[in-house]
Amino acid sequence: MSILIDSADIEEVRQAMELGWVAGVTTNPALIAKTNRPVDQLIAAILEASRGPVFCQLTTDAPEQQEAEARHLHALAPDRIVLKIPAATANLSLLARLRPETPCALTAVYAGHQALAACEAGARYLIPYVNRATRLLGDGLKLVGELSAVAERAGTGTEILAASIKTPEEASEAFLAGADHLTLPFDVILRMGDHDLSERAIKEFRQVG
Ligand code: E4P
Predict the structure, then answer these.
(1) Architecture label for domain 2-208
(2) Does ligand 1 lie within 6 Å of residue 170's CB atom?
(3) What confidence score (pLDDT) does residue 17 get?
(4) Which of 73, 162, 85, 69 is nearest to 118 (CA)?
(5) Ligand 1 centre and the CA of 206: distance in Å?
(6) Residue boundaries of the structural domains of the chain
(7) What pLDDT shows up at residue 59?
(8) Range 158-177 average pLDDT
(9) DSSP 139-173
(10) N or C terminus: which one in the chain shows less Cβ crowding within 10 Å?
């Protein structure tokens, strides 16, 4: 099990790594666009500021360009870069061509049948968007459980990296629902160890101390 930071902000990534219990970074085109930096330069900066896996999502939809982009991004740090490939039947062949030397995650997974095909195509990770799935399908945690069950029965060792998580409670619920790993926004990471009752108990101890 590992917790990653979902961010392309170098300072957030650096601070998250300093906490000592954040194991890697996930990015996506929206997070990268916010930085207004060239992708290669930004990924290099993220690699330098972090440890562990760095998940990079493909930006091109053109099939003839996808494999080149994937191999280019992976070559930036072959021992750390994991490609995020958007879930679509057209993209599964790319996933199958890239395995096993190029670890891939199928991202934006919203159904068990996508997970089943991705496991067969060689996906290392499945990335469900938990909060989005709850808003759009009604129950993002149920989706995590379904994907976990599919991956387990497929027996391919494919793991669930739960994303689109907005609260510490949603993070633990996603883990209990079957996520093997979590990627969290920085603001959620900073609240993972807090609870009002813990704060109250600490204040009470200080008052008697
Ligand atoms: C993973 O990196 C996903 O792209 C991201 O967690 C989506 O989360 P959002 O629903 O907050 O955009």
Answers:
(1) Alpha-Beta Barrel (3.20)
(2) no
(3) 98
(4) 85
(5) 40
(6) 2-208
(7) 87
(8) 98
(9) -HHHHHHHHHHHHHHHTS--EEEEB---SHHHHHH
(10) C
